[in-house]
Write a structure and sequence with these properties.
Layout lengths: L11 H12 L7 H10 L16 E7 L2 E7 L7 E7 L13 H11 L2 E5 L11 H15 L6 E11 L1 H12 L6 E5 L10 H5 L8 H11 L22 E8 L3 H13 L4 E10 L8 H16 L11
Helix pairs in contact: 3-9, 4-5
Length: about 325
């Protein structure tokens, strides 16, 4: 008798990682347990267990009351891009420590200074605390771009997961201050009514139940564009975007819809959909994660130069 089961859409390596991470990751609802798991690297997908490359300097500062960590890969030039990085973690966990490797890798590969924002977390600080902190850090970074050896006309917002949401929201709030936005598998619609939510609700690490709880903890009106950027009535005039998605992710279809809307509004938008991987793959030991980071760095390096940014894996 033939086996009628559908083939696993994850690659064998991704499936092994997914199952191991799922086994060590708490269910939704316990903030302390989730934060402990993220800090230890046991299933956060943040890359906290991976060391990034050496950079010339790493320094901590305070940006208008928001703690930040500044990564300078190799000082000397004065026209480098400046990346404001907003970490993922469902708005309730993670921080600069969990995303240290990602920020180091992005800084070195893009030749950019990276400012990693330690924004306030929910549920203690619900919406709009996080997006307000993100905007504060953007303003701080842009004001100090020259002092950091960067071009203030080449400021890029970047973030993974909930940080991708914050990057998209900040671009909506201050498009004139941003030269580009890099969104790694962002949640963009709190209504969670896309087909991928049902298709990948369980079995792919980042569950629909987790995402619903993150949204509930974060708060805000689901219809407000600074909560759900996909609900913004007008996306014209936004800076160029690179949207990087995992095919096996509850958030996939939101990202696809946002890319279509950006393109329809005349925004230069590059979409990368990685097959065989799941949410959080950027920080994992997977070939797709390394390729996505290289491509994002190449895109960032091209921001603000003649012609649109380019992206090569």
């Amino acid at each position: 008798m033939s086996d009628l089961r559908a083939p696993d859409p994850l690659s064998p390596q991704a499936r092994r990682l997914c199952d191991a991470m799922t086994a060590g990751f708490p269910g939704p609802g316990d903030v302390d347990a989730l934060r402990a798991a993220a800090a230890s690297g046991s299933g956060s997908g943040s890359g906290s267990g991976r060391e990034g490359p050496a950079v010339a300097s790493v320094s901590d500062a305070v940006a208008g009351g928001v703690p930040v960590r500044v990564y300078d890969p190799a000082p000397g030039r004065s026209d480098r891009p400046l990346v404001v990085f907003l970490h993922g973690g469902g708005w309730v966990m993670c921080g600069p420590d969990t995303h240290d490797g990602t920020c180091r890798s992005l800084a070195v590969a893009a030749g950019a200074v990276v400012v990693s924002a330690d924004y306030r977390l929910a549920p203690e600080h619900p919406w709009p605390a996080a997006p307000d902190d993100a905007l504060t850090v953007l303003l701080w970074a842009r004001e100090r771009a020259r002092a950091l050896g960067c071009d203030p006309g080449r400021v890029v917002l970047a973030g993974d997961s909930s940080g991708g949401n914050l990057a998209a929201v900040t671009a909506l709030r201050a498009p004139e201050l941003v030269a580009g936005q890099v969104l790694f598998y962002p949640p963009l619609d709190a209504r969670m009514d896309s087909a991928s939510v049902e298709r990948y609700a369980e079995g792919y690490f980042h569950t629909a139940a987790h995402m619903a709880w993150y949204w509930d903890s974060y708060g805000g009106d689901p219809e407000h564009p600074h909560v759900s950027p996909l609900r913004a009535p007008d996306l014209s005039g936004l800076p160029p975007a690179l949207i990087v998605l995992a095919d096996c992710d509850v958030l996939r279809d939101e990202g696809l819809a946002y890319a279509r809307r950006l393109a329809a509004a005349g925004v230069d938008c590059t979409l990368q959909l990685h097959p065989g991987v799941f949410h959080g793959f950027l920080g994992l030991p997977l070939a797709a994660g390394a390729a996505a980071l290289r491509a994002a760095a190449a895109w960032v390096a091209g921001v603000g130069r003649a012609g649109p940014p380019t992206s090569r894996a």
